[in-house]
Design a protein that fits this description.
mainly alpha, abc type-2 transporter like fold, 2 domains, four-stranded mixed beta sheet, 68% helix, elongated
Length: 376
Amino acid sequence: MFNSRLASIIRKEFIQITRDKRTLVIILVIPILQLFLLGYSATSDVRNVPLAVFDQSHSPEVRALLDAYRAADYFRIAFAVGSEEELRVLIETGQARAGLIIPPDYAQRLAEGSAQVAFILDGSEPSVASTALSAAILVGQAHATQILSERIARSGMNVKLQPPVAVHTNVWYNPDLVSAYFMIPGVIGMILFAITSILTATAIVRERERGTIEQLIVTPIRPWELVVGKILPYAILAFVDTLEVLAIGHWWFGVPIRGDLSLILALSGLLLLSGLGIGLFASTIANTQQEAMLTVWMTLLPSIFLSGFFFPLEAMPVVLRWISHLVPLRYYLVIIRSLLLKGVGVAALQNEIIALSLFGVVIMSAAALRFRKRLD
């Protein structure tokens, strides 16, 4: 009897989902759109920064310097200006993000031993400016080293140019520092958390709006069977979305999957408990689907911004870092990024797993008890 009753609720919910085209779009299409939008647009990789050049020397040495900046791929020489005022206007209007001012005696001073140029950056976008600043310095240093090497070679001196200190860098797990490797695991967490909580809340409230939940209550179905039957389809669809995003992220964006896939899905289920619990709790507060959506979004927005999805937790004030410990998504993002990029096991993630398990059990239990009381 139990299996047949529960199966009937699950089958009814799947039929209702397939009939509601908007819900199907939200479940299956929106995650793909989010993946591509965030995978391409939410990136800290700085490329093709428009550069305005005020060249007062017009010498072969200047052309060599500009070729070095072109080759670095960080800058795109978009404007050649005739005055500092013209360069200022381009930066003020946002047409150029950086400016390079080359003095008239650049070639002469370079021949004498040392020359200086001025590099101006638009600091209104700090993330772009900081990366462009580092790139400008590195390009200049590399070009200066090349000039020094050529001078030594021309002089016939057999001197090996060797800096007194050499720092050899080695980046693990993401050698090319691709932003998509950071963003796409975060998208998986956001989809699991958002879709399960929103759809669970609205699905139950929709039954209340239509008056069909009273019909369900008077049937022999137990309250907990109704709860499980209503939320289980959305949990299954959330796992489908997870596999969908994993497949596209791996095959399209090249995000590695170094961890065990079964472990990834199992630990994703822990986040589902929190998402489903929040949706279930919202359904006990709201009387309409709009109220349910607003209630869920009150938890989603802080979760997204305090979980490390967009911004590193280390850069936040101490108070916000403490508050972030109350966000289940924070722990899952550590788990999913470690599993995908580092391929670690349970031992390396035991603190996050314990925290996420506690959140899931507590939130789901509290929401289920409140929902049952409301049914009674």
